[in-house]
Amino acid sequence: MRSEKEMYGTILGFAEADERIRVVTLEGSRTNIHVVPDEFQQGLAHKADM
Predict the structure, then answer these.
(1) What pLDDT does residue 12 have?
(2) Which of 11, 23, 37, 41 lies 20 to 30 angstroms, CA to CA, from 3?
(3) DSSP letter at 36?
(4) Largest CA distance in the chain
(5) Could you report the per-residue pLDDT of 25-45, keeping only the tens digit for each?
(6) pLDDT digits (tens, 9 = 90+) for 11-30
(7) CA 31, 7, 23, 21: dihedral to nearest 10 degrees?
(8) 3 contacts 45 by C-beta, under 8 angstroms
């Protein structure tokens, strides 16, 4: 399973390689440092590998 840092690197690398992509945003509970991690935060790397 990929770490959070690896996932961010993959997402940003993909965006940087495609000149049509101008903005990358992060939405949801991951943007709020006061939120207790939920199943979607913990499963992001697993679901992205599918």
Answers:
(1) 94
(2) 23
(3) P
(4) 35
(5) 988 777 777 888 767 665 544
(6) 999 999 999 999 999 887 77
(7) -160
(8) yes
Position with higher pLDDT, 17 vs 49? 17
Is residue 25 within 8 A of residue 11, CB to CB? The reply is no
Tokens of 27: 């939405």
Dihedral sign, Cα of residue 40, residue 46, residue 49, residue 50: negative
Domain range for 32: 4-48
45 contacts 8 by C-beta, under 8 angstroms: no
Looking up tokens 């790397």 gives 45
Name the token pair of 5: 């840092």
Q: How far apart are CA 47 and CA 17, in angstroms?
A: 22
- Structurally, the chain folds into a number of domains equal to 1
Instruction: Name which residue leads in pLDDT, 11 or 3.
Output: 11
